[in-house]
Amino acid sequence: MVSVAINGYGTIGKRVADAVAAQKDMKIVGVSKTRPDFEARMALKKGYDLYISIPEREKLFQEAGIEISGTVEDMIDEADIIVDATPEGIGAKNLKMYREKGIKAIFQGGEKHEDIGLSFNSFTNYDDSLGADYTRVVSCNTTGLCRTLKPIDDLCGIKKVRAVMVRRAADPAQVKKGPINAIVPNPPTVPSHHGPDLKTVMYGININTVALLVPTTLMHQHNIMVELENPVDIEEIKEELNKTSRVMLVKASEGLASTAEIMEYARELGRPRNDLYEIAVWEESLNIVDGELYYMQAVHQEADAVPESVDAIRALLELEEDNKKSIEKTNKAMGIL
Ligand SMILES: NC(=O)C1=CN([C@@H]2O[C@H](COP(=O)(O)OP(=O)(O)OC[C@H]3O[C@@H](n4cnc5c(N)ncnc54)[C@H](OP(=O)(O)O)[C@@H]3O)[C@@H](O)[C@H]2O)C=CC1
Ligand SMILES: O=C(OP(=O)(O)O)[C@H](O)COP(=O)(O)O
């Protein structure tokens, strides 16, 4: 059983911690925080040893009566691998520390591909991270694109993809982000960074994306248009997506006509935090017009890329050479369809 530490027990970090703790072949030996808040207390309640990333703040934790086990450097000494889930850009700064300590590390999508040198998705390029020292799990949006474009490419080939990424402005708990009442071209430049980001894990794919921020916190929504290489029947595509792991077809006609209703369905599934790990594709949106495939999907940004971090641990530590076997183990432990 390998020992995993989480540097940055936040939206993603706490979900990865629970996902790792659910696995049979790995365990959590520590998580880190910078503030003695309710999340820190929850970490201890879950049985995770708590470490601090800013040593000068030790007194704050003592005054709050929150027991800490040491600094992040102490936590690293207990672990075989680090999952860095610190805010965008901080992971790259931590890389120097990880190198000096000689520990493998997994980063998240907020880091730049070029800063880490390798990016990861369980379905598209797992093998490239086998035995690597560092890799970067691509962001929730890019993970969402991978999950559905990969099976489509395998089935009938992809000539070109165009996608409009309608992104949530903030996570539900992020009270300082927006917009509250605007639609923001973000970035205003076209194409957005999502196309190049997808190419870091789906090599050679021809894609251009446009991205917006809208005042919602529940999910991202993607509008995808695919020029297909070979003719295919829409029913074949539906069948392929239906059997694809970490993807689910949903029907507007059955009351799943919006991100809000999909998240209500996620509540019914009863997973931790009502998380939806699967990419939800609206079945009615799947259509082929003049040889071009159209479809719409929704992405629970807080959760969809979390199982990929678990698979990335197996790849870096070479616990499982076959991505399909890792995906199966991760899914089984997390109750993923
Ligand atoms: N949120 C999302 O929807 C998604 C985020 N990502 C990516 O995941 C990564 C983490 O994002 P997210 O979980 O949202 O971030 P959060 O802000 O929710 O959590 C960040 C965590 O890092 C800790 N932290 C803050 N500053 C430092 C520091 N200097 N050193 C060490 N730890 C620190 C925070 O501790 P404390 O709270 O105590 O200050 C917190 O535990 C980013 O790369 C992001 O781009 C990817 C997909 C989706
Ligand atoms: O939108 C996201 O990544 P993206 O920049 O790849 O679209 C992630 O959800 C992270 O977004 P955030 O940086 O607003 O937390």
TrEMBL record:
Its EC number is 1.2.1.59. Pathway: Carbohydrate degradation; glycolysis; pyruvate from D-glyceraldehyde 3-phosphate: step 1/5. Its main location: cytoplasm. It catalyses: D-glyceraldehyde 3-phosphate + phosphate + NAD(+) = (2R)-3-phospho-glyceroyl phosphate + NADH + H(+); D-glyceraldehyde 3-phosphate + phosphate + NADP(+) = (2R)-3-phospho-glyceroyl phosphate + NADPH + H(+). It comes from the Archaea. It is an enzyme of class 1 (oxidoreductase). Keywords: Cytoplasm, Glycolysis, NAD, NADP, Oxidoreductase. GO terms for molecular function: 4-hydroxy-tetrahydrodipicolinate reductase; glyceraldehyde-3-phosphate dehydrogenase (NAD+) (phosphorylating) activity; glyceraldehyde-3-phosphate dehydrogenase (NADP+) (phosphorylating) activity; NAD binding; NADP binding. It is found in: Cytoplasm. The active site is at C140 (nucleophile). SMART domains: Gp_dh_N (SM00846). Gene3D superfamilies: Dihydrodipicolinate Reductase, domain 2, NAD(P)-binding Rossmann-like Domain. D-glyceraldehyde 3-phosphate binds at S139, C140, N141, H194, G195. It holds the Pfam family Gp_dh_C. GO terms for cellular component: cytoplasm. One of its GO terms (biological process) is lysine biosynthetic process via diaminopimelate. NAD(+) binds at T11, I12, G110, R168, Q301. Belongs to the glyceraldehyde-3-phosphate dehydrogenase family. This is Glyceraldehyde-3-phosphate dehydrogenase. It comes from Methanothermobacter tenebrarum. The gene is gap.
